[in-house]
Amino acid sequence: MRDALPCRQGYTPGMLKPLPLFLAMLALLSPILGALPARTAEEAWGALSLLDQSVAPGEKQRIRFETESNWIGATLDTLVLVARGREAGPTLCLVAAVHGDELNGVEIARREFAAFDVAETSGTLIALPMVNIHGVRSSTRYLPDRRDLNRAFPGNPRGSTASIVAAAVFGEVLNPHCDRIVDLHTGSANRRNLPQIRADLDVPSVRELAEGFGSGVVIHGAGPEKSLRREAVDAGIPAVIYEAGGPLRFEREEIEQGVAGVQRVMRRLGMIAKAPASPSEQRSFRKTRWVRTRTGGIFLTDLPLGSEVAAGQVMGTVTDPFTDQREEIRAPVAGFLIGGAEPQVVMAGYALFHLGIE
Known about the structure:
It contains 8 helices and 19 strands. By secondary structure, it is an alpha+beta fold.
């Protein structure tokens, strides 16, 4: 009966006769085969190929990232920090200094990469600590073409300088590799922000990322068109912004809160086992409002960030140094102070206070 059974092409019934001998040999070899090392988790996880480099599981690399150079230099010449855990997991990307004068994120990204223990962590961390390295070097928000990089994504390799940089960063690193993105920012133009997350809370995966970060304040919004956060979400990558502190300085508390938030995200993603607890009080705002001055002069305020503000409350003053005429800056509505300008000389129309409205 066995000879009558159909056989796979290339076999004949007579080939089945040595089967008992084969089984006997397999029994003799079993102890030897069992002593051979099994395929390791690192081999199963595999290496990450990024910017023509290979990063193996359990390895960290600093990869130079530059566009084509000419006599002026490269449009983009920075580093990408890659840490690949031994165990399989998601890829979290940190992006800092999209605006070159916003420095707190630079230190957050550096600390996270330095602390990433590839032996104890699952998944991959990719950090771009100085995307706008030209702006960092010259202490300016913008790129050399005076354009805002955060209004140039996803970029165009045949466009402006900002578009070329955006296309390289988004097309070669972020879009192909990132499962989640945290974009690190501060206030600008002598303004400071209370540590906060900005996220499109109507997108469930983005809301989950914002909740995982665990900031005390969350501001709802999709973000401006061509901003990194908005374009990433449109491409299917959950992304949020962490805003904290002011420009052109490193602020210890804001940095530490950012580091803790990123670790909470990694814990939520299953990359690490432990992370700092979230703040006990968390507030979410779907509407915000800037309060501006109608005159120019010397702006002074004693109102700290995080203050509750009543409608009609005086928040600060603007005084003309030549005429002594003073404008009292009053809150148009009740709100929570999530950002504001430092005391300085201001022009008419300058945004002084940013209120979260519940």
